[in-house]
From TrEMBL:
<keyword id="KW-0812">Transmembrane</keyword>
<keyword id="KW-0813">Transport</keyword>
<dbReference type="GO" id="GO:0009279">
    <property type="term" value="C:cell outer membrane"/>
</dbReference>
<dbReference type="InterPro" id="IPR012910">
    <property type="entry name" value="Plug_dom"/>
</dbReference>
<dbReference type="Pfam" id="PF13715">
    <property type="entry name" value="CarbopepD_reg_2"/>
</dbReference>
<dbReference type="InterPro" id="IPR039426">
    <property type="entry name" value="TonB-dep_rcpt-like"/>
</dbReference>
<feature type="domain" description="TonB-dependent receptor plug">
    <location>
        <begin position="118"/>
        <end position="240"/>
    </location>
</feature>
<dbReference type="InterPro" id="IPR023997">
    <property type="entry name" value="TonB-dep_OMP_SusC/RagA_CS"/>
</dbReference>
<keyword id="KW-0472">Membrane</keyword>
<dbReference type="InterPro" id="IPR036942">
    <property type="entry name" value="Beta-barrel_TonB_sf"/>
</dbReference>
<comment type="similarity">
    <text>Belongs to the TonB-dependent receptor family.</text>
</comment>
<keyword id="KW-0998">Cell outer membrane</keyword>
<dbReference type="InterPro" id="IPR037066">
    <property type="entry name" value="Plug_dom_sf"/>
</dbReference>
<protein>
    <submittedName>
        <fullName>TonB-linked SusC/RagA family outer membrane protein</fullName>
    </submittedName>
</protein>
<dbReference type="Pfam" id="PF07715">
    <property type="entry name" value="Plug"/>
</dbReference>
<keyword id="KW-1134">Transmembrane beta strand</keyword>
<dbReference type="InterPro" id="IPR008969">
    <property type="entry name" value="CarboxyPept-like_regulatory"/>
</dbReference>
Amino acid sequence: MTYIKSTLLWIGVFWIHWAIAQNTISGTITDQNNEPLIGATVQIKGEATGTVTDLDGNFRLAVADGQTIVISMIGMESREVKVKGSQPINISLKEATSVLGEVVVTGFQEVNRKLFTGASERLSMEDIELAGSPDVSRALEGQVAGVSVDNVSGTFGTTPKIRIRGNASINGNNQPLFVVDGVILEDLAEVNTDDFISGDASTLISSSIANLNPDDIATFQILKDASATAIYGARAANGVIVITTKKGKSGKLRVSYSGNYSFKLRPTYNQFSLMNSAEEMEVYREMHDKGLINISTSVRGQNYGAMGKMFTLIANHDLEWGPGGGLNEKFLNKYENANTDWFDLLFNDAALQQQHSLSFTAGSENSNSYYSISFLNDEGQTIADNVQRVTGSARNTYFLSDKFTFGLKLTASYRDQRVPGTRNREFDPITGRFSRDFDINPFSYALNTARSIRPYDDEGKLEYFRRNYAPFNILEELSLNYIDIQVSDFSAQTNFDIDPTDALSIKGVINARYANTVRDHTVHENSNQAEAYRANGTQFIQDANNLLFRDPNNPGLNPTVVLPQGGFNYLDQSELISFYSRISADWNKSIGDIHEINVLAGQEIRFANRTESNTTGMGVIYESGGIVVTDPNIIEFFNQQNIDYYKLDETNDRFIGLFLNGGYAYKGRYVGNFTVRYDGSNQLGKSREARYLPTWNVSGAWNVTNEPFFKVSFIDNLKIRGTYGISGNLPPNASALLNLQADVTVRPTDVEPYLYIADLTNTELTWEKLKELNVGADISLFDNRLDASFNYFQRSGFDLIGTVQTSGVGGQGLKVGNFADMSADGFEVSIATTNIKRNEFTWRSSFNIGYTYDQITRLDFGPRLTDAIGQNGAAVLGGPRRGLFSARFAGLNSVGIPTFYNNDDEVVFEIDLQERDDLTSTLKYEGPVEPRGGGGFTNNFKYKGFSLMVLLSYKFDYKIRLNDGFFAQYTDFDALPAELVNRWAVPGDEDLTNIPTILDRGVAQTRGDISLAYQLYNKSTERVADGTYVRLRTVRLSYQLPQQWISKIGINTANVSVEGQNLALLYADDALNGQDPEFFSSGGVALPQPKMVTFSLGIGF
């Protein structure tokens, strides 16, 4: 009893002493923006005693003088503070290093950068965002070494051509894999790389990234080599771009608003080398003298302009001949002086695009949330296009316990867009040219239409000329012929993270997505396209117009009209239903400061069901409530024209993958890593070897600066790394299955429908594969004021998929197969410097360059000559993926007609372009059509609240085929190149000029070889330009308003900026004559990237 009393006495004395020594401290915990953090933990170091901050970030805690408290919170860096007396403690926490870039986000896991062995780069959206650009992928241009971004079209919804380290496939899609918050983003439409430049309406849904709100994106992680992309296995040959979106932050409710007001500047004729209307009329008079334009050719002509209109009016007795039966110069003078500015008429002046985004974030110790909505309204670069887009997202993370985190993410977007009506382009295998019927693309029209044509007559009414044998006025046609596009995209995603032990983490993600697109092409009754189907005014036009119906059972009858009334409705619908799930176990163990071990294992399952339907409706009278007038011969007419009046395609894509990754680091000096995967797809051959693909990678790194012997003071970090592995790829539209298509016979006596073979089966069709070796080094110098990264790589692609020739026994001469191999090697250099950091002024620069040299080493089926001379180039053994070839120009002959060398070096007018042999001896190899090298140079200046950013982007080592400009027969509807002023005119000019003469009509119509000579001239060595360019891509000036100004009105942050994009080509080949080296004038829906000025406002509450 005495012992118990004594013990209690001592405890009481100790408690009194401890209580006297305690201080009750208080304080406030905030983030870097001075926002209070709710639910931050404040704990005495080494003890269980602690508390959490309240709604205002405040806390109170009894702590003995001299003790240390630890302040921590999920997503923030912990801080330790030693208590001195009872003074208030106000602490600001920084975002955790995982947010600030000390880890590499692969989409499957987060890896400490020091232990990462691959080649990757991380970009913050805040640093690279292009204000006013709705497609965030365009912001990568010039930012990362080895990443090429070609803006082949600036129309909303089209995707830029993005390549990481060149091309991994010859005929497949060389776009990188996009991963958003750990889930692979499926494309709405399967469009291969070559079709990006087509201008077809399908390219408007080629970019799934266009459905994302740029303000929702936090970072990009670009994974480039085999080690970085290995975890994605058979789909990673083209590289991976990992997008991480924003999450909620702990603390009270914060609201952010951003608004962008962008003005697109219209093109001008000063940029291009074209004749004005007076110069055109001079050429037309010469064409008249040579019989190319007269009363006969005009009345019969498919297209005509001012002079053709004059002759037609004379033929109809609505206009008199000129003096002496010559040209009516009084009539022609008003067109000669018209000099119509089609760019002014068809493009909006300073077209306004608005983007508004509003986000909300809040959180506590148990959960955090992020919500956003955005709205985009683009009134259109031209008078024929506009778009509205709405996006919404909700993301919640719940910290159910210390061991269990659960997340839920919902996203939705809707787009409503209008573009000019267009039909898909078609390739002419004879001439090697692409053409598009009824093309009314405003840019192509302004560039290719005579300026002597007027939009309005003398009375201010619409003036009509002839196109497709029917009256035509572009302003009317754009109002009567258009495509409406609606895109709806919804996804739901859930993820969980269970930590049974400190070392083990079990993670899972499930994503379901539904996307629907509708392309509704409306062609009104009075449109030129509809009227062309009714053009039968003369016997000659009836015989020449292939849009009239020819009865196969009565070949002697005149062609008849099958569209007596109404117009067209082309309806294309696409549906995507996808599901993705992944579960993985991630084990990390540190043994002292010596050993670090990581093992990741898991599986993923994916399916994507695509359904596409196409309907062609004919005879729709929109002006009468949509009444349909159907001709009984319409089905036979569709068969003659090879038109599917209804088509339904369903594709079910199934994919499964197993993966295992392991890593080991010894004292932070030596790092080793391996990855193995086993993937399977139902799109390949039936054999197990074809359908399943094992991939693997081994890599290592040496952190030299962690060595005890390394004592170089100015080197802060030096890491040498290397990797070797194999990955794979499956191009879109590549299938091993037998594809049978149903059709109906033309003649009524053949009542049975039939099947034809569209694609032969190939049971051995397997994945495209890529072996890759990469060695690199990362170095930081002078207190991290200079950072540099160097990479050298070799790539070897094999089993590449394309068309192979068969014996024909199966019923077809061609089928899809593994027909080629391709190798590549290249280098990448990135350098970032802090040039000046003094007082409140900072100047930082970054420079990057990447170069890839690719070469086809095996090709089982080569191209024809006509393929190789086209704008897209062709795959030729020993050349790049797409090499440009040219007919070898031999000069003009004595009468001004172009001549060429054949494979025997003989001077000829024509070459057999259908040949596949003697390609390299007949044609000249010019170079690749895709840039082999490129990069960017960025300078950032900051003084107090002002920031200035200037970005130059550049590309080099590629060739461009100039647009066709010279023909055996011209019409007065078409624009004429300014070079035609220097055309051959008299004997002896062949020694002074290389511009062909304008032929006499008799020669042009009777000598087919002469006509081909002009086609070859457009594809000759004379019509090639160097693609090298330097572009002033972005200039941005911004100002962060001082906190003391805005806090008085309840605003936490505010900034304003002005930004110019695509401002100038600082260098380009003069031979381009204004043609943008990135843009292919393919018509359809394609428009060049405009010059744009954007004013932005950002506010945080």
